[in-house]
Design brief:
Elements: H1 2-23, H2 28-36, H3 40-65, H4 74-90, H5 96-108, H6 112-139, H7 141-144, H8 152-181, H9 183-193, H10 199-214, H11 222-249, H12 260-270, H13 280-292, H14 297-326, H15 330-340
Helix pairs in contact: 1-13, 2-14, 3-4, 3-11, 3-14, 4-5, 4-14, 5-6, 5-15, 6-8, 6-10, 6-11, 6-12, 8-12, 9-10, 12-13, 13-14
Length: 342
């Protein structure tokens, strides 16, 4: 209980700090003036497009799941993604990342550790996909520098966060590749470290670790890795497209490719484990808009609030409908995630 209280205190503090910098020096009259001029057609289109990323993620996930079970129902993968995001929107600590695989494992009768391993693969390739797109954006600078001028400090920030993201993704990749290719050694080390625990618990943890490593076995083929990498690029190009349309709703017209650094920075903000991405997403969104595109700070605040609200409301609405249909509650899912979360 004390441990949970400390975690909650940290994430609340993080949210407040980022919200302070996000909302600092805001002229709310100007914010509402900008919001009143939104293009209704494009705004409605962004609402309709919210489920697209759940769809592309679900199709990509099936590519990993088929190594364990072929014919996983699309409805179940879509539901697991929607429910996972809903839980992460409501509870701190990215709990939805645990709930998502556990929910699908129950629905499809699959091994929990295996499905959890596939989710780790997803997140690593998410980072690599966006780092790749950001790298292309930075390398292509000579092609667009005459029409798109960015403050050198903004490029420096992009390079910094790009290096951080690549470093984290590379470190995680090395770890999971080591787990996969040295499976026997990994399990022996896990068994040794678990010796002080009761035998029954040790066996359960080692069995879960073995299932987890099985979830990484698509790395055995270079062809499947490349195919999955291409799918990850499709997922994130779809997300770039979504934000591109949202920018049009606020009369901000930019070439599609130039939205890549914005999406990258919002990904960095969204990775901060606060409920509903509150604070981190907002600060990095405003930072990207003002430093990269010279958008008025008040417009940037208004756009960010709307973008964030649409994502939360529509994602949670989809998630709640699925929960209602399944006869489940968020509290049940929270307990499900916490049962496997140390």
């Amino acid at each position: 209980m004390k441990k949970n209280g400390i975690r909650l205190g940290i994430v609340v503090l993080l949210s407040l700090v980022f919200l302070y910098f996000f909302l600092r020096s805001v002229d709310w009259k100007e914010v509402f003036r900008h919001l009143a001029g939104v293009n209704v057609f494009f705004f409605a289109l962004t609402i309709l497009l919210v489920p697209v990323h759940l769809t592309t993620r679900s199709l990509r996930w099936d590519f990993l799941l088929r190594h364990e079970k072929k014919g996983v129902r699309f409805y179940n993968t879509f539901s697991a993604n929607a429910i996972g995001f809903t839980v992460s929107m409501v509870f701190p600590g990215r709990l939805g990342e645990i709930v998502k695989p556990l929910y699908l494992a129950r629905k499809e009768g699959m091994r929990k550790g295996f499905v959890l391993g596939t989710v780790v693969v997803e997140r690593i390739f998410d980072m690599f996909a966006m780092c790749f797109l950001l790298g292309v954006f930075l390398l292509a600078k000579p092609l667009y520098s005459s029409v798109f001028r960015v403050n050198p400090d903004a490029y420096a920030h992009l390079r910094f966060w790009g290096i951080v993201a690549v470093s984290v993704a590379s470190a995680l990749l090395v770890v999971i590749l080591s787990l996969f290719f040295f499976k026997g050694t990994t399990l022996r080390i896990a068994s040794f470290l678990m010796k002080p625990l009761p035998v029954r618990l040790t066996r359960r943890i080692v069995a879960l670790a073995e299932e987890f490593i099985e979830g990484l076995k698509f790395f055995h083929s270079a062809g499947t890795v490349l195919a999955y990498a291409a799918m990850s690029l499709v997922v994130w190009l779809g997300i770039v497209f979504y934000y591109w349309i949202l920018f049009f709703a606020f009369h901000v017209s930019l070439p599609f490719f130039l939205l890549v650094p914005y999406v990258f920075l919002t990904m960095v903000g969204a990775s901060i484990p606060t409920p509903g991405m509150v604070g981190g997403f907002d600060y990095f969104s405003k930072l990207a808009m003002t430093s990269l595109y010279q958008i008025d700070p008040n417009l940037a605040v208004g756009m960010t609030i709307v973008i964030h609200a649409v994502q939360i409301v529509m994602t949670c609405l989809i998630g709640y409908v699925i929960l209602w249909k399944e006869g489940l509650s968020l509290i049940q899912l929270k307990k499900l995630g916490e049962s496997e979360n140390p």
